[in-house]
Amino acid sequence: NEPSERTVEAERTVCPFCGVGCTIEYAGNETTTGVEGPVNTRGEICPKGAAAFDVVTHDDRLTEPLVRHNGRFVTAPWEEALNRVAERLGRIRDDHGADAIQFFASSNCTNEENYVFQKIARVLGTNNVDNCARLCHSSTVAAMGERLGAGAMTNTLDDLSETDCLFVNGANPAEQHPVAFRSYLLPAIRDGASLIHVDPRANDTTEAADVHLPLEPGTDIEVANAIANVLLEEELVDDAFLAERVTGVDAFREHLASVDVEANARAAGVDPEAIREAARLFGEADRGAVITGMGTSQHRCGTDNVHALLNLALLTGNIGRRGTGVNPLRGQNNVQGASDVGALPGVLPGYEPVTDPDARARVADEWGVEPPAEPGLTEVTATHRFGEDVHGAVVFGENPAVTEPNATAVASAFDELDFCVVIDLFETETAAHADVVLPASSWAEKAGTVTNTDRRVMRMRPNATLPGNARRDLDILTAIGRRLTDVPEEFEYDGPEAVFEELTRVAPIYAGMSYDGIGDGYQRWPFPVDAEAGTDVLHTETFATGERTAPLSAVDPTPPADTLDTGELTLTTGRVLQHFNSGALTRRSDRLMAMRGEDVLQIHPDDADDRGIEDGDTVSVANERGEVTVTADVTTAVRRGVVFCTFHYAEPLVNTLAGDALDPVAEIPEYKHSAVRVEPVAPP
Ligand code: SF4
């Protein structure tokens, strides 16, 4: 356990902060720089990428395993900590069954690590493994998987630069995916493409928009159905595509006949003429691309919201060609990959359903153990059952005490567990509730692959050695697998490349890939064995379902779970340029904190006036689930009746205000609509 001296060298790797996947390397003086890569072809990066090394060298880094004794953490040798993890989790499995343990995978870690992580769970006998895709785009994946057969971007960032119309629904790529916006979307706009922005809040993306539809949070279906109605009424649909590639057209027309554009516009709080203008721009474009984000997906009707957007793409023939498609922009750097490799409760690596006996048999051929046939618990549902039938948790690079809805209740629920181990860089808010905390490796200290938002698998390479006695994540996970499961030999790997080779044998969409083939570039899935290259544009001749056609699907609005009492406002949440998810990483960067050190609550001037709130006042934002205090930013960027805050800060812990309502299909929480009371806080 003697730590070696730390060294740093420049190796090209992938930025850890968003799904765009820019290539970066260490640049000396504890900074990173962008280098020409497959996505950032001119080496451009955003402020988060430039600050990526700040978390690597941060003083808060854990350097020794921590084990709880008499309520307090003490440092412990690795052997003791790992043995305790295996012994305590093993006891839970023996007493209650493997389904009494929940595995939280990490969308911020590599494909190889997530593959091994889900393998531990499944070899142990449970499908209770999930990653934060549950919280961001599980509804998107569910809808697109059902209708098209693949729950990922249908197109590539490169070909979106050829689009004629961008329909951006519930996303803010100018701030959340800045290099993609500047390198691919903005050039299309400069070439004459129009931009329709459907978002309750005006933000940097809106500045480039031709039409802004500032809808009431939770009315995406009203807007999309009204647009579909105009497309049909004004004959802006693609009849040839409908005849050849789409089913359910007559039933859909019949359903849409009852949609009243004026009524839907009123319900959504937008101008009906703006809806018509948006429909005409999208319907008349030769190539129209839908881009969708968490503003669409994070509702209790998130799956239906995406169905409504898929209808627009199918009606106008905007699938299967360059510059078109339905394109979810993924948040974390490897949220796509964590899902691809099976860190989800219902699917094995490569999205093969756990209920499919042939898929289980293929996995069993490789592992020597057949995964269970019953889908496991999603991470949100599991937290609701802590202390009931879930007694143990393995939390790998996630921070659910901050990221789950009703977060304060979730944090307390962790204390109901018999045992919890957290594997992380820092003593996170979740680690505070753990029994053992294992010091892990940052992005700069490990090798492996990640899969970006447009299905590109790229290689990460170490830029730095580990601090103190921290260990590489893959070494930690394989050590747990060897101790905890009955097949220790299944966790003997000669490095990440050996794991990737196994992954290609288990996940058909990765079958033809290799480290050599990826090199300094990328390979894109689906990449079948013996194929010369991956597939850029999906669904060109047939859909990924194997069918030539995909169905239209009529969906009706579902009101948000929280109803507003008199005087209450709708809280909706989102991200800003400088921070990343729970902020566990970016809040530890002095330079990012210097740019945006605290959260603010955006509130419309009329709502502020009604409450006697002035710009810069401290306000209380509260509902029955909790209360936070935050500084008011009085602005017309938000519509009247809506307030906006980010979810990047542990203080204010905004997710504590989000409710427990879940989408019935994907179990994604309704982060985007919470009823709150907003009041000024009297100065002391
Ligand atoms: Fe990193 Fe995303 Fe910024 Fe690129 S756009 S530098 S991947 S945070």
From TrEMBL:
The keyword Magnesium does not apply. Its EC number is 1.17.1.9. The keyword Coiled coil does not apply. Gene3D superfamilies: 2.40.40.20, 3.40.50.740, ADC-like domains, Dimethylsulfoxide Reductase, domain 2. It comes from Halorubrum tibetense. It holds the Pfam family Molydop_binding. Residues 8-58 form the 4Fe-4S Mo/W bis-MGD-type domain. GO terms for molecular function: 4 iron, 4 sulfur cluster binding; formate dehydrogenase (NAD+) activity; metal ion binding. PANTHER family: NADH-QUINONE OXIDOREDUCTASE SUBUNIT G (PTHR43105:SF10), RESPIRATORY NITRATE REDUCTASE (PTHR43105). This is Formate dehydrogenase subunit alpha. InterPro entries: Asp_de-COase-like_dom_sf (IPR009010), Formate_Dh-H_N (IPR041924), Formate_DH_asu (IPR006478), MoPterin_dinucl-bd_dom (IPR006657), Mopterin_OxRdtase (IPR006656), Mopterin_OxRdtase_4Fe-4S_dom (IPR006963), Mopterin_OxRdtase_prok_CS (IPR006655), Prok_molybdopt-oxidoreductase (IPR050123).
